[in-house]
Amino acid sequence: MDFQLLTKEEKLDLIFELYEKHGQEDYIGEPVSQIEHMCQSAQLAEAQGYDEEVILAAFFHDIGHLFAHLGVDDQMGGFGVKRHEQIGADYLRQLGFSEKIARLVENHVQAKRYLTYRFAEYFEKLSEASRQTLNYQGGPMNEEEARLFESDPLFEASLKMRTWDEEAKEEFVPVPDLKKYREMAFKLL
Known about the structure:
Elements: H1 8-22, H2 34-47, H3 52-60, H4 84-95, H5 99-118, H6 120-125, H7 128-136, H8 143-150, H9 155-167, H10 179-188
């Protein structure tokens, strides 16, 4: 599909229809749904005073998992779509979102790989699902990968994305009206 031919509204329809149709599904072995997880991530970013690009990246960070319903069948043993961070980031780039948003989506998995390399105790904090997916995501980084990641201008924000990803698994947190994120996306697209 040539996304350049679509209006902003049509692009947003594509994204938010994914959330509406598939967001209520299980979040790969966690006690929350996909939409609960992604909304909680965005809410954490907002509560900590981050800008709208970071908030939206937190909201979009796992959009690649929703592509299982669009024919992407490269799975991580029942724990979601393999390379979901890359698939999601590429999709957001194609739609016209900023490189900052796309890179933060991409980097949330790299941050997990980094943290498990630099801090052995971080692995112990991961949920069982996050531990299982780490194997599919390349495992902990090596020293060269870690140094390169540390030099990324979005390094600190990427680590925050990972923190929110781990924290955004609370049951019974109300899902906000997605209109808020749609309006934010409209401004930034």
